[in-house]
From TrEMBL:
The keyword Membrane applies. Its main location: membrane. Part of the ABC transporter complex UgpBAEC involved in sn-glycerol-3-phosphate (G3P) import. Probably responsible for the translocation of the substrate across the membrane. This is sn-glycerol-3-phosphate transport system permease protein UgpE.
C-alpha cells in the first residue's frame, strides 16, 4: 500500500514538473524567437515565418549587423537615459515611499485613513486620466524636456507606499516605544532600525519601480521629445514608421531591452517572491 502511494506521489511530481516545463517553453518561445531573429539578416527574418520548423527556431546564417546599426544610431544614448531615469527613480522612490509608509504605519494624525485610501486609489487610476494636468504642471515648473519631467512623476508610488506600510505595521509598537525611551528620535528609528529590516520589501519595491520606468513609453513620448532625452522604449518604437519598418534594428533593440531588464529581476527575484508570499499571508 505504501509503495502504491509513493509511486502515485512520484508520478504526480513528474506530471507537475512536466506541465511546468511545457508552460515555460510556451511562454519563453516568443522571447527566444525575438532574440534569435535579431541575429538574422534582414531578408531572412520572416523568410520561414509561414511554416513552423527548425529553420524558424535556429538561424543558419548569423550576423551582428542589426546590433551595429543600433549602436551607430541613437540607441546607446536612449539606453543611458533609461538606466539613469530608472535608477534615480528607484533611489528617490525608496526614500520617499518608505518614509510615507513608515508614517502611515506608526503615527496617528488627522485624516489618516482618508489619506491612505487616497494612496490606494492612486495606483488604481489609469495614467491617461492624469496625463494632461501632469503635463501642465511640468510645463509650469519649466521641466518639460528635462530629466526631472521623466523622474519626478514616478517617485511617489501608491503600491510601494502600501508595501512599506504593510511591513512597518507588522513591527510591534513596543519596539518603537522602547527605542524612544532609550533616547532615539523618529529619524534614527526609521534609518537605523526599520529600514535595515525592510530589505526584502525595499528590493521588491526597487524592482517594481525599475521595471515600470524601464517600460515607460507614453509619458516620455509626451514630456521629453528632445532626441537627447529619448528613452529606450521610444527608441525601439522609432524603428517602425508609416513608410517602412526596420525589423532587424527593432528586434536587436528590443532584445537588448529585455536582457537588460532581466538582470535586476534575476538578482532580486527571491526577495520579490518572499514579499509577495508574506503579503498573501497577512
Amino acid at each position: 500500500m505504501n509503495d502504491v502511494v509513493a509511486s502515485s506521489s512520484r508520478l504526480m511530481t513528474v506530471l507537475r514538473y512536466a506541465a511546468l516545463i511545457v508552460i515555460a517553453v510556451v511562454l519563453l518561445l516568443p522571447v527566444y524567437w525575438l532574440i534569435m531573429s535579431s541575429f538574422r539578416p534582414a531578408e531572412q527574418i520572416f523568410a520561414n515565418s509561414g511554416r513552423f520548423g527548425i529553420e524558424t527556431l535556429i538561424p543558419f546564417e548569423l550576423t551582428l549587423q542589426n546590433y551595429r546599426d543600433i549602436l551607430a544610431g541613437g540607441f546607446p544614448r536612449a539606453l543611458f537615459n533609461s538606466l539613469f531615469v530608472s535608477f534615480m527613480t528607484v533611489a528617490l522612490g525608496i526614500l520617499v515611499n518608505s518614509m510615507a509608509g513608515f508614517a502611515f504605519a506608526v503615527f496617528d494624525f488627522p485624516f489618516k485613513r482618508t489619506l491612505f485610501v487616497a494612496v490606494l486609489l492612486s495606483f488604481m487610476m489609469p495614467f491617461e486620466a492624469i496625463v494632461i494636468p501632469l503635463y501642465v504642471l511640468m510645463r509650469k515648473l519649466g521641466w518639460i524636456d528635462t530629466y526631472a519631467a521623466l523622474i519626478a512623476p514616478d517617485i511617489a508610488s501608491g503600491i510601494v507606499i502600501f508595501l512599506f506600510r504593510q511591513f512597518f505595521a507588522q513591527i510591534p509598537k513596543e519596539i518603537y516605544e522602547a527605542a524612544r525611551i532609550d533616547g532615539a528620535n523618529w529619524w534614527q528609528i526609521y534609518r537605523r532600525m526599520t529600514m535595515p529590516l525592510s530589505w526584502p520589501t525595499a528590493a521588491t519595491a526597487s524592482l517594481m519601480m525599475f521595471i515600470h520606468q524601464w517600460d515607460a513609453f507614453f509619458w516620455p513620448l509626451v514630456a521629453a521629445s528632445s532626441p537627447d532625452l529619448t528613452v529606450i522604449q521610444v527608441a525601439i518604437a522609432r524603428n517602425m514608421t508609416l513608410e517602412q519598418s526596420n525589423w532587424g534594428a527593432l528586434f536587436a533593440s528590443a532584445s537588448t531591452a529585455v536582457l537588460v531588464a532581466l538582470v535586476p529581476f534575476l538578482i532580486l527575484q527571491r526577495y520579490y517572491i518572499q514579499t509577495v508570499a508574506l503579503g498573501s499571508d497577512r
